[in-house]
Amino acid sequence: MANGLPDPPRGLLTADAARSLVDSVDAFLFDCDGVIWKGDKLIEGVPEAMELLRKLGKKLVFVTNNSRKSRRQYSKKFKSLGLEVTEEEIFTSSFAAAMFLKLNHFPPEKKVYVVGEDGILEELKLAGFECLGGPEDGNKNIKLEADFYFEHDKSVGAVVVGLDQYFNYYKMQYARICISENPGCLFIATNRDPTGHMTSAQEWPGAGTMVAAVSCSVQKEPIVVGKPSSFLMDFLLKSFNLETSRMCMVGDRLDTDILFGQNTGCKTLLVLSGRKLLLFDICPTIAFTRSVSHAWDCNCRLYCLTRIAGRFE
Length: 313
Fold this sequence. Notes:
Enzyme class: hydrolase
Subcellular location: Plastid, Chloroplast
Number of strands: 14
InterPro entries: HAD-like_sf, HAD-SF_hydro_IIA, HAD_sf, PGP_euk
Mean pLDDT: 84
Low-confidence stretches: 1-6, 277-291, 295-313
Distance between the termini: 22 Å
GO cellular component, one term: chloroplast
Largest sheet: 5 strands, parallel
Binding site for Mg(2+): 31, 33, 252
Order of helices and strands: HEEEHEHEHEHEEHEEEHEHEHEH
Number of helices: 10
Structural class: alpha/beta
C-alpha cells in the first residue's frame, strides 16, 4: 500500500483485477509501433480491444515516438487499417518538436534544418516555421577533396533530428556545422529509441542512432521532446481535462513508454507484442501482458502491470 491507496494489481490478471484497472483509468495512452501495429500490419485483437474500451467510455490517445509521419498522415494510416482515430487523438514526436519551438518563441526569421522525414517537415510547416533538409538531402553527396569547403545556411537556428531512412554523411555534416557554427543553434531530438518496428518482419535502427551520430560529432547532448520526456504530457493535459493518476500508458518499451508513464505519474501497462525482452533479467519484479488484446481477456493466462514501483534502472 502506497500513499494510503491499495497496491495496483500484479501477477495473474483475474476478472476483478481487470475491472479494477479499467475502473481506475479514464484515459489509455497507447504507443503505436509494436503495440497497435508492426510496420503496416495490425496486431491481432487491437480493434476489438479499442472498441471495448471506447464502449466503456475510456478516452484513447496515441503517443508515438516515430517521427516519420505527421498527425494527419498517422490518422490516414489508422484509417487504412480499419481504425477510426482523429488527428486530435494522436501525439507524435514530430508534433512535439514543432510545439517545443513554438512555445519557446523560436524567432520567425530563423530556419530549421531537418534530419528526418516528411512527418517533421509537415508539422514544422503547420506551426509556421521555414525548414530545409529532410528526404531531398538524402540524394546529396560529399566529395572529400582538398580544400573542399562545406557551405551552409547561417540563418538556421535549430536542427531537429529524427528517424531518417535517408540519413547520410551530407546530412550529418550539415547538422554538425549548423549546431557548431551558428550562434545559439538548438539541437533537438525527437527521441533516442535505438530500434523500432519499421516493418512487420523485424526491428530496424531507430532515431537514436541518427541522434547519436550527430551528438558525437558536436560533442553535445540534444533536447529530447519525445518519450520518455514529459514534454508531450503537457499537451495531453492541456487537450484533455484529466489527471495523470487516471491515465494508463500502454507500451512495449521499458526505456521509453513505461519510463514516460513513471515520469508523468501514470499507471503503466507493458505489452510484449513488440519487443523480445529478457524481462526478468532486467527487472524481476515486473509483470506484463502478451498484447493489448490479452489485457482485456480474462480467460487468457496473462500478467498485468499497472504501475512499476520505484525507479527503473
